[in-house]
From TrEMBL:
The keyword S-adenosyl-L-methionine does not apply. This is Universal stress protein. Residues 5-141, 154-278 form the UspA domain. Belongs to the universal stress protein A family. Keywords: ATP-binding, Nucleotide-binding. The lineage of its organism: Bacteria, Bacillati, Actinomycetota, Actinomycetes, Pseudonocardiales. Coiled coil: none annotated.
């Protein structure tokens, strides 16, 4: 059975082409096929939700979609993935990619795309997939990862939750594949109470990292304990990283919580790509 693909979307925007480049490099790095989708968004054209648009309008959208896919496929080929599969989907972009996440190994999207508003916030498609995707998801942010001499570390956070083991394993695998160091951060308090024995809590954090983070021998690992706000610390460290790896929910998560506050903050503010590891249930497919 062939490995499940890395899936990305191409809408013609610069952000989506960044996602295609990142996804192609990841597919080559991990030995997976690449699938590139373009959503035609036909449901948005139904007048009153019922009356279909003229056929020549649909033909024009299909032609534009094929051009966007050709450009993306050529770009993927330049990254070492000449056999990327392309697909036109009549559905909306978010729905198309969420459906693909049922069998994909990884979804990769740009931070924003067509219809985006000015500013640093993640676009609606990235936010929807980050919240509702069924497999691990990368939102491509920043541009340092695309520099020829990019050698920043992979950064992850650990909070002591059981789901953190999967996040750590993913972060280790990414650091190993990229041949870069891994920084494992434990930021032990959002708002530390003044009366808290900070030294004792910091020592507990160090014991947690020593117990959870293995010495692999092939990945340089830095264990960092800081009495700081986890979201702020991760955002600051993302400026010099090539990838931040997070769980979609942390220790405070519960079944009804679709996306943790730290994950949301990084999706909107990180200076590098963010990999969200799905922590509810087993991975989608090998």
């Amino acid at each position: 059975m062939s490995p499940s693909p890395i899936v990305t979307g191409a809408d013609g925007s610069a952000e989506s082409l960044d996602a295609v480049r990142w996804a192609a490099r990841a597919a080559r790095l991990h030995g997976r096929p690449l699938e590139i989708r373009h959503a035609l968004d036909f449901p948005a054209l139904l007048a009153g939700g019922e009356v279909p648009p003229p056929e020549d309008m649909l033909d024009a959208l299909r032609a534009r979609g094929h051009r966007a896919l050709r450009t993306a496929q050529e770009l993927a080929g330049a990254q070492g993935m000449p056999d990327a599969v392309t697909r036109l989907d009549p559905d909306r972009a978010a729905q198309s990619l969420i459906e693909a996440s049922r069998t994909a190994a990884l979804l990769v999207v740009g931070a924003s795309g067509r219809g985006r508003c000015a500013g640093p916030l993640a676009g609606s498609v990235a936010a929807a997939i980050g919240t509702h995707g069924r497999c691990d998801t990368v939102v491509v942010r920043g541009d340092r990862w695309d520099e020829p001499d990019a050698d920043g570390p992979v950064v992850t956070g650990i909070d002591g939750s059981d789901t953190g083991r999967r996040v750590l394993a993913t972060a280790l695998a990414e650091a190993r594949a990229r041949e870069v160091p891994l920084v494992v951060l434990h930021a032990w308090a959002d708002e530390p109470p003044a009366e808290l024995d900070r030294q004792a809590v910091a020592e507990a954090g160090r014991r947690l990292l020593d117990a959870r983070v293995p010495d692999t021998g092939d990945v340089e690992v830095a264990r960092v304990v800081v009495p700081a706000h986890p979201r702020r610390e991760l955002v600051e460290r993302s400026a010099a990283a090539q990838l931040v790896v997070l769980g979609d929910r942390g220790r405070g998560g519960f079944p009804g919580l679709l996306l943790g506050s730290t994950a949301q903050a990084l999706l909107h503010n990180a200076g590098c790509p963010v990999l969200l590891v799905r922590t509810a249930g087993p991975p989608v497919r090998p």
